[in-house]
Amino acid sequence: MSQTIKILLADDHQLVLDGLAMMLGSQQDLEVVGQANNGHEVLTFLKQHEADIVLLDLNMPEMNGLETCKAMKKEYGHVKILVLSMLSDVKLVKKLVKEGAHGYMLKNSGQKELSEAIKKVVAGQSYYDARIVEQMMSATPKASVRSESVLPSLSRREKEILQLIIEEHTTQEIAKKLFISAGTVESHRRNMISKMGVRNTAGLVSKAYEFGILT
User: Fold this and answer.
1) Are 106 and 129 within 8 A, CB to CB?
2) 190 found inside a domain
3) Quick one: 69 and 122 in the same domain?
4) What's the Cα-to-Cα distance from 144 to each of 90, 97, 212, 213, rounded to whole Å?
5) What is the pLDDT of residue 33?
6) Of 42, 69, 81, 142, which residue has the fewest beta carbons closer than 10 angstroms?
7) Over the stretch 7-32, which tens digit does the pLDDT of each residue have?
8) Residues of the chain whose pLDDT is less than 50?
9) CATH number of the domain within which 155 lies
10) Beta-ladder partners of 9
């Protein structure tokens, strides 16, 4: 039996909190363990209680979502962050990923997609709304690509795997598509993380866009 995922909700609108709590609380493997109206309340909760993931709004009073990401990265790096917002700003998404967010979804997403995103992020993967990914891909101009002297050198296979990671394929799905073992996929993932000087898959995705590695 899978372990229940403990979720902390953070939003300054009570109707949103109540709706999310009702939506997620109806599922056996998800448990809403708390609610917060701003970043200060998020940090206070995490100091006293356990949570696997925070569903984080951006526009909150006193301490907003970006500031909360920075603080959580420093104090509670083990807790995953999935941002829920109405904003589809690519620059903002990149900044959030840099500051510790593990995923970004728009608030008009459905229950099934949200549940899937939570599970993927808690499992150590990143998750981005398909509309955000599309904007990121189209917003990477060739002129912004860094010079070869600082550009991480990825092999053709690594780029293929990175593209599939961004498209939200699991390790098993990538292995099947490329006719390689899951272990080989994970080995390539670790190599890319090392080459690009990041700590996890979310950082890998962020760097890929920063350097314009993918087309």
Assistant:
1) yes
2) yes
3) yes
4) 15, 19, 7, 10
5) 96
6) 142
7) 999 999 999 999 999 999 888 899 99
8) 1, 141-151, 215
9) 1.10.10.10
10) 35, 55
Domain shared by 128 and 171, yes or no: no
pLDDT for the residue numbered 168: 78
Domain count, the chain: 2
Phi-psi region of 3 (alpha: psi -120 to 50; beta: other; left: phi over 0): beta
Domain that holds residue 12: 5-136
- Dig out the tokens for 99 from the structure: 């500051």
User: Which tokens belong to 212?
Assistant: 């314009």
Instruction: Tell me the two tokens of residue 144.
Output: 């912004």
Question: Rounded distance, CA 79 to CA 212, Å?
Answer: 29
Q: Other CB atoms closer than 10 Å to residue 14's CB: what's the count?
A: 10
Q: Is 191 exposed, middle or buried (0-12, 13-18, 19+ CB in 10 A)?
A: middle
Residue 7 phi, psi dihedral angles, 5° rounding: -115, 135
User: Of 201, 178, 64, 188, which Cα lies nearest the Cα of 128?
Assistant: 201
Q: What is the DSSP string of 63-130?
A: S-HHHHHHHHHHH-TTSEEEEEES---HHHHHHHHHTT--EEEETT--HHHHHHHHHHHHTT--EE-H
Which is nearest to 9 in space by CA: 29, 44, 38? Answer: 38
User: Which pairing describes strands 30-36 and 5-10: parallel, antiparallel, or unpaired?
Assistant: parallel
Q: Which two tokens stand for residue 102?
A: 């593990």
CB atoms within 10 A of CB 133: 19
Angle at 54 between CA 213 and CA 100, to 5 degrees: 35
Return the H-helix or E-strand segment holding 45.
Answer: helix 39-48
